[in-house]
Every structure is written in C-alpha cells, then in structure tokens.
C-alpha cells in the first residue's frame, strides 16, 4: 500500500484533526468521555471492553496522550507528575468542533479554488 503524503498547503490543524479524530479507538474514547465524564485509563479500557473493543491499557494511554496534545482531552494531573498516580481524563467538548471546522474549511477551500479557476 503506498504511503500517504501530507499536501504542503494542508494546515497543521487539519493534519491534527485527521490524525487524531480519524482513529476509531480515539473517537470511541472521546465519545465515552463526553457521555460519562472524567475517567481513568483503566475505567476507559474496561468500558471499551464492555462494548466489545479490546484495547490494552498502554494503547488507551497512547490514545489519551495523542488526544491531549491536540486539546481534545484534559488530565487532572500534570504530565510531569503522573508517575505513581491515577490521573483521570475528561473531554474538552469544544475542541472536536474546532478541529472539524478546520477540516471542513480546508475541504471548502479546495472547492472554492476549483470553482474560481478559469476553464
């Protein structure tokens, strides 16, 4: 399968939206946090397993870290002092909309550029 490239004019916010929200596990984790509120990674993994998705704890943490970098989730314990603690993550309810708007704006700009070009 060929590697996909990032077009040079694709804004970083659009790349973040695709890479972060384009993942099924991350989308489901975000949905759970939006509906259930703050949860630990163990609680999230247990909830995913109850829904038939077997996601290991280390992968849940990897997904949470990726979503935290993009502002989709927030943690109640700062990253530098999490070792030995049981942090809980919660969803940032406004961020998915912001990323979606960036992505849609990028798609619309392509359509607008196409319609304004001479034929």
Can you walk through the features of this model?
The protein is mostly helical and 119 residues long. The chain has one domain (12-112): Arc Repressor Mutant, subunit A (Orthogonal Bundle). It is built from five helices and two strands; from the N terminus they run ααααββα. It has helices spanning 12-21, 24-36, 41-50, 57-69, 95-116, and strands at 73-75, 89-91. The chain has a two-stranded antiparallel sheet. The model has no long low-confidence stretch (mean pLDDT 88).
Which labels suit this protein?
119 residues; Arc Repressor Mutant, subunit A; two-stranded antiparallel ribbon; 5 helices; 2 strands; 5% strand; elongated
Are there runs of 5+ residues with pLDDT below 50, and where? Answer: none
The CATH superfamily appears as: Winged helix-like DNA-binding domain superfamily/Winged helix DNA-binding domain
* Spatial separation of the terminal alpha carbons: 34 Å
Beta content comes to 5-15%
* Overall average residue pLDDT: 88
